[in-house]
Design brief:
alpha+beta; Fructose-1,6-Bisphosphatase, Chain A, domain 1; D-Maltodextrin-Binding Protein, domain 2; five-stranded mixed beta sheet; binds D-MYO-inositol-1-phosphate; binds calcium ion
Amino acid sequence: MNTDYLTVASEIAREAGALLREYLEKGVAVEYKAKFDVVTAADRASEKLVVDRLRNRFPRHTILGEEGFGVDNGSEYIWHIDPLDGTTNFSHGYPIFAVSIGLEKNGESVVGVVYDPTREEFFAAEAGSGAYLNNRRMRVSKVEKLEDGLFATGFPPANRTSNRNVHNFYQFSVLTHGTRRAGSAALDICSVAAGRLEGFWELGLKSWDVSGGVTILKEAGGKVSDMQGGKFLSGGPHLTVSNGLVHEQMLEIFQLVAEGRPPAPVPPAVG
Ligand code: IPD
Ligand code: CA
Ligand code: CA
């Protein structure tokens, strides 16, 4: 039965990704949900497509979509849809964005698919069956030390000036091979799953940003928690994913930063 969910989700994600590619070629007008929080006609068209297809196949399921086209049927099955993860990139023609679809049953992973239509990379997993990139099995990296790793984070558009994550960003930038901020949380998580990054973290993500990616990450052998090492809840306030080997080292940096004892000295802005 689960295989059916994966097949359907995969077909829909590919269709939505093709639609995004068409919008990218045509160009889209930028609209604002709030200051700095952009949305486009492509976000809405992609979500309508995904929701219509899912409702058609699974009329009793609940669908939670970022753009509000979902339906709450009070089901134990919830589809978490980000029809365009990386809208800011997309709206500038910067080609790092994806469609993300995650299915959870009573909060537990069932399937996850994340499709990057510009690279034609398709990340997919079903709980208990491993994770695949373009049908090839993928695994997290074997890097053991934080200082040998490459990391990523992100910054949500809301409450920009009260987000303290810039301090973590700096610490990881100087204590590791580097910190990337590519602009698509779903692809960042899949990059950890594919062994391209050792870890990713962010505060303030929503369930649609992470549900698909986290299922893929777990099936690739990765570890997920909140930023204090607690159980990760889809849509929880903060998330840490890693190859497992550097997880505790990541949490230690967050802890030291939160205590005001950052391990690397921070230079003064002036002088
Ligand atoms: C955003 C991206 C970005 C992350 C933001 C998200 P959106 O999603 O995932 O990488 O840093 O927190 O809101 O708005 O492009 O779907
Ligand atoms: Ca998103
Ligand atoms: Ca989005």
